[in-house]
Specification:
Structural class: mainly alpha
Number of helices: 8
Strand content: under 5%
Shape: elongated
Helix content: over 70%
C-alpha cells in the first residue's frame, strides 16, 4: 500500500512539468525573456567592450608582470561575468521551457531573434582572442606561472562555452533541433578554443578537448 502511494506520488510530481500544463513553479524565477534581453542588449556588449579595453592596452613589447596580471584578471572576470549574465539568462529561459510555462515560447523566440546581435558582437571577441594569442611569447618570457594564469580562465571559458552550446542551447532549449542561434554561439566557443588550444600545446605539448 505504501509503495503504491509512493509510485503514484512520484508520477504526479513528474507530471508537474509534463505537457498537461504549466508547472506551479512558473513565475518563481526571474523572467527569462526580460533577463536575456537585458544581457544581450546591455550588459554583454559592455562586458566585451571592457574586456577589449584591457587587452588593447597590452604592449607590443617589453610587457611587465603587471601587464600579464591585468590580462589574467580581465579574462577571469569575463569568464565569471559570462556565467553570471549570459549563461544564467539562458538557464532562466530553459527553466521556463522545462516547466512548460506560458512564457516559454516568447522567451525562446527572443533568444532566437537575437542571433544577428550575437553574430554582430563576435568580432569583438575575435579581436580580444587575437590579442591574447599574439601576446603569448611575451607572456612566456615572464615565466610559466604567468602563462598558466592566462591559460586557466581560457580553459574554463572554452569548456563552459562548449557545454552552453551543446547542452543548454542544443539539447535543453532547442530540443536537439539545429538552429542558427546555436551556430552563432558555437562560433564564440571556436574562437576561444583556438587560443586555449594554442596555450595548451605550450603547457602540455598536445591539443585536447576542453
Amino acid at each position: 500500500m505504501i509503495w503504491g502511494f509512493k509510485i503514484i506520488f512520484a508520477f504526479l510530481l513528474a507530471n508537474l512539468v509534463s505537457a498537461q500544463g504549466p508547472s506551479p513553479l512558473c513565475g518563481s524565477n526571474p523572467d527569462g525573456k526580460t533577463t536575456y534581453e537585458n544581457v544581450i542588449n546591455n550588459s554583454f556588449p559592455k562586458l566585451l567592450a571592457d574586456y577589449n579595453a584591457v587587452i588593447s592596452k597590452f604592449p607590443d613589447a617589453n610587457a611587465t608582470p603587471e601587464d600579464i596580471d591585468s590580462v589574467y584578471h580581465a579574462t577571469e572576470g569575463f569568464y565569471r561575468a559570462w556565467l553570471d549574465g549570459f549563461v544564467y539568462s539562458l538557464w532562466y529561459v530553459e527553466t521556463e521551457v522545462f516547466r512548460n510555462c506560458d512564457t516559454a515560447a516568447a522567451a525562446v523566440k527572443t533568444v532566437y531573434d537575437s542571433t544577428p546581435k550575437v553574430k554582430a558582437l563576435l568580432p569583438e571577441l575575435q579581436k580580444i582572442m587575437t590579442g591574447i594569442s599574439r601576446f603569448e611569447p611575451q607572456i612566456l618570457a615572464q615565466g610559466r606561472p604567468g602563462h598558466w594564469a592566462i591559460y586557466q580562465p581560457l580553459d574554463y571559458l572554452a569548456y563552459n562555452l562548449w557545454h552552453t552550446t551543446t547542452d543548454l542551447i542544443h539539447q535543453r532549449i532547442s530540443k536537439n533541433q539545429p538552429t542558427a542561434y546555436e551556430d552563432a554561439v558555437r562560433e564564440y566557443y571556436e574562437t576561444v578554443e583556438a587560443v586555449r588550444a594554442q596555450y595548451y600545446r605550450e603547457e602540455y605539448g598536445q591539443q585536447g578537448r576542453p
